[in-house]
Input
Amino acid sequence: MYNEIDLHYMNFDDALKVFITKYNRLYKLGERKEIMVIHGYGSKYLDRTPVIRNKIRDYFLRNKDCVKMRLDLNPGVTYVTPLKPLPIPKKKKR
Output
């Protein structure tokens, strides 16, 4: 059985916050098995590009030292294996 993190119906900033919080909590508890990240097909589209799916996968690629990513046949799911805790993103200045 996989641990799951469901990011449906969120904007990217909220989805990233939820993912990092849950991921780091699982890591702290000693979980090292794959986590199923359910982001959907990208229901929030920008110019026909799935926003959350693409941005979350880009985030995983930028943090290869912390998380190993594996794609699924289902484009609405990505699997990640925890390698070390993820850093908390710095707040953007407005």
